[in-house]
Design brief:
single chain; about 450 residues; alpha+beta; 8 strands; about 60% helix
Length: about 450
């Protein structure tokens, strides 16, 4: 079984499987673009030469220096187009089945492709004369293959393409005239042919440098994309894209840190008792429908659902990155959640009633767990107090209770608030001011 692309000298170090898969796919995509360009260029070239030879045969014969036959053109380019089309189909299959192309096949393909101008040059030298053919357009075709080799995104493959072009053109210039008994003596101009070959080799090296730069840019963009995926996975499936973007911009790491966070606990009232009378499948479906609506509200308001707690969840505003408007966002989200649940209940035969508690304060936030499994979480008295506020909804028949800190931070979002005064909260020695918003 073939392995994925392995990092080379430019990419030393461990890379994630996601990066490897994405990188190989992009390299194969650029390879497909290169092959398509060669096929389209060959077809257009055939069409143009055929049309000109039909409409203006005298012009072609003047250039060719004798009667021109399309047979040579089709005998060379039609097999090339067929072979290249087969190679394109193979590369597409490899990409779709998540396989990389072995390096020996890459170099073999480069050798075959770069030899096409050599074959055409040999035919032209036999019909046009060696000196005239060497000064005609065919040697310039080598540069087309060298230029397109940059899409291989491999420095050494582009350099190899330039080396093949240089060696084959020099060999054709120096040895082919003697092979077909030509009167042309290339050795009198050996410096001229060496210089031309050196230019081809230099073109291959430059194309390789461009390919290496493109490869680095591809790697950087794919690394950024896989980093985004890792952040999304780290904070769960329901992290808003805005939060992910902010995390990547800030280069957030796994270290625990202190944040001022609005902590929201949401619980579905009496859900367990109602669930006993229904099938498990129906219970899961009802929870899924409810969470789909509620989590979407959290996302829209810049929060994250940190964890699901059976028939409820814990949401954070202001973590993993600081947000000076966290309290206001949390209250706005809570009000929207209650409105959304009212609409959801109107269309369901199983209406749900929520209890929400919000408190804002300092927490310790970071990734906690073992070396094998970690999760992002928040720890501190702020979290505990928010949970206590949510539980108080049962006692006061309310749906949304907030602390005085949240009431002060929420500004316009705290409209219609009713003070419950300072009440006793389990686990706290002194009574605490609580506000009911719904």
């Amino acid at each position: 079984m073939r392995s994925w692309w392995r990092p080379q000298a430019a990419w030393r170090g461990e890379v994630s499987p996601e990066f490897s898969r994405a990188f190989v796919r992009e390299v194969l995509n650029t390879e497909r673009v290169r092959m398509k360009a060669l096929i389209v260029t060959s077809v257009i070239g055939l069409a143009v030469v055929t049309t000109v030879s039909w409409l203006h045969p005298q012009f072609v014969e003047q250039v060719w220096k004798k009667q021109f036959s399309l047979f040579y053109l089709y005998a060379i380019f039609v097999p090339f187009i067929i072979v290249e089309s087969i190679a394109l189909a193979v590369v597409s299959w490899e990409r779709d089945h998540r396989h990389d192309i072995p390096y020996i096949r890459r170099y073999l393909n480069a050798l075959v492709e770069t030899s096409l101008p050599t074959i055409v040059l040999g035919v032209q030298m036999m019909h046009m004369g060696d000196e005239r053919a060497l000064g005609f357009i065919v040697p310039m075709l080598y540069f087309m293959f060298i230029t397109l080799s940059t899409l291989r995104l491999d420095f050494w493959l582009s350099t190899f393409t330039g080396a093949v072009a240089a060696a084959e053109m020099f060999a054709m210039a120096m040895f082919f005239p003697a092979f077909h008994a030509s009167a042309y003596d290339p050795w009198s101009e050996v410096g001229f042919h060496v210089a031309r070959s050196v230019v081809l080799l230099g073109g291959g090296v430059l194309a390789g440098a461009v390919a290496a730069q493109l490869r680095r840019q591809f790697a950087s963009s794919i690394a950024a994309a896989t980093a985004r995926d890792r952040v999304t996975n780290l904070f769960g499936q329901h992290v808003s894209p805005q939060v992910v973007e902010r995390l990547l911009t800030a280069k957030s790491d796994d270290a625990a840190d202190r944040h001022n966070v609005a902590v929201m606990f949401v619980d579905i009232r009496s859900f367990t008792a109602a669930a006993r009378q229904r099938k498990p499948e129906e219970v899961v479906q009802r929870l899924d429908r409810a969470f789909e609506v509620l989590v979407d509200v959290i996302d829209r308001n810049g929060g994250i659902v940190n964890k699901f707690l059976g028939d409820g969840f814990l949401a954070l505003f202001g973590a993993p990155l600081e947000d000076p408007d966290a309290g206001n966002r949390a209250v706005t989200a809570a009000r929207e959640i209650l409105q959304a649940m009212e609409r959801e209940n109107a269309a369901s035969d199983w209406p749900l009633r929520l209890g929400i508690g919000i408190h804002i304060g300092e927490v310790v936030a970071g990734n906690v767990g073992s070396s094998r499994r970690k999760e992002y979480t928040v720890i501190g008295d702020t979290v505990n107090f928010a949970a206590r506020l949510e539980a108080l909804n049962k006692e006061y028949g309310s749906q949304l209770l907030v602390s005085s800190n949240v009431y002060a931070a929420a500004r316009d979002g705290s409209g219609n608030a009713v003070s419950l005064g300072e009440i006793a909260v389990r686990g706290y020695d002194q009574p605490v001011a609580v506000w009911r918003l719904a």
